[in-house]
Amino acid sequence: MSRSSIRRAEAARLQAQISRPIPADDADVRAALVSAVWLGVIVSRHLLNSDALAAASPQQVVDLLRPCLRSLTRADLAPEG
Question: Where are the domains of the chain?
Fold first, then answer.
């Protein structure tokens, strides 16, 4: 098994773990968005050293992201479509 296959399998396992508690028909898409948001924050903060994001406290980042992540993980807060 190649390294990329292992990474994909691990990513799928983590995605399933995130989507499991999301009460929505599109839980897999919502879980992918949650992962993408966190990955973007990590890359911007630690690899790209975005000044504002790097200077923000972890608690500030969590507080600002909470409404976004809550809307993705709670189907009752999502717009109907």
Answer: 3-77
